[in-house]
Amino acid sequence: MSPGFEDLFREVARDYAGMWDFKFRGATLEIVTPHSTISDKFVSVFLTERDNTFIVSDGGYLHTSEYVENEDIKTSKCYNNSFNHYEQYYKILRVSDRNGKVIFYTKTDNRVLVSSLIHDMASFVTGVANAQHMTLETDREIASRLLFSREAKSFLEGAFPGRDIKFNQPLRPDDRIHFSAGIWLNNKVSLVQYVTGYDSYHFDASIAKATMNFLAVDGSSLQPSVRQKISFIDTTATGYGTRGNSSYSSLLSKTSAVVHWDERRDLIDMIEDR
Amino acid sequence: MNKVCQEVRSNFALYEQLLLGSKLTEGGDIYVVQDKPSRPDWKEERRAVEQLAQPGYPSMLHTEVKANEHPRFKFLLFAGSFMSTPLANYDALGATHRNKYADVPLAEQAVTTPHFNRYDELGHRIAYKTPPLTDPESLRQLSQATNCIILFYNEFNIRHSSADYPAVLMEAPAQQSLFPQPVTDDPLAYVARF
After folding, report:
1. Which of A81, A102, A131 represents a domain boundary (last residue)?
2. From B1, B96, B188, residue closest to A28, measured CB to CB
3. ipTM value of the model?
4. What is the pTM of this model?
């Protein structure tokens, strides 16, 4: 082994130790740790004392997406799954503050254990923050979905000039059910849901989601305004396969009209006719 | 996420002109009172920025303030027809940025807030501090958004038409309270008990 390695080790340890930094934040000490995320952020943990107990927390930074760069595309994440593992392993507690911000923390009344809690909290935040960036879908799956949604959007905008088109039309304000587009005229709306998918699994899931979304219209406050329910099928998707070959598609055609992308002029006739 | 911004990398000269070329804002003071749609715990104000040398690239200045944490604010400069992410921004408070590129030693990678972010010629988004951001006395002044906007205007060559600089205010004139809620940068200030 090179005789210089022990010196090199000391340099590494010194560089590493030099990464720690702190800021006074009211009654709380922000500690910037050497742990970092794949969004190019160093993780901060927050130390405070209440009733002779040391509280080590994330300062609410996970809940407020502090480690997420820019606005992320909406997609399913590994987050929920990995979060549970990390939360259990590090025995993380949580509390909501007066403004609804969720804070993850651990606590001890033994001063000697504070360093250990800070190590745990920094590891927890790093793991969870990185999971917030990891998608269950591959980049190709996401890209194929976004591509169709862009093409469909520009088709709809060109086909219905002057109409009020709401992309991501919610079923009701703040509802998690959204339709790909709502095309409005005289307080009546034609709901359009895109069906696409990179492979047959995702394509079937997309059909199932469209079916459920349209079923949810019945009895909702939006229902009286709904003129049409239309599934807009991405025939260019690799998951498209043979038209009408699954029970999913027959369920879909019972809950909505079906228009195929390669016959998209039908959509204009369908919406103009009424 | 350590990604290279292709718009900047392939046209760095234009990027620098948009970032550092002469710019102008109009209108009165900045009242940060609108809810930010994607993050309801933030308020924002948006106003047009005229690119005097590049009129084909209309730009925007976004001022964002976190409700209940007034020392927490951002300024963001956009040129939407050039790139969708900000040309540059200022973060008053928040996570420490990591400049992680091949030849930056570990000890120089961490840039705490407050800091500016912009892109380098390779399209990397980097964080940096100017001298006032390391001086404790000027930092105290700059923790007020209304003082700090001067720094942002000067850094990116923006002038304001009517006054020297617009003031940044958290409430519309009619709603300004005689007894404003005290604000704090303590992220745990509103936790009743753990």
Report:
1. A131
2. B188
3. 0.83
4. 0.72
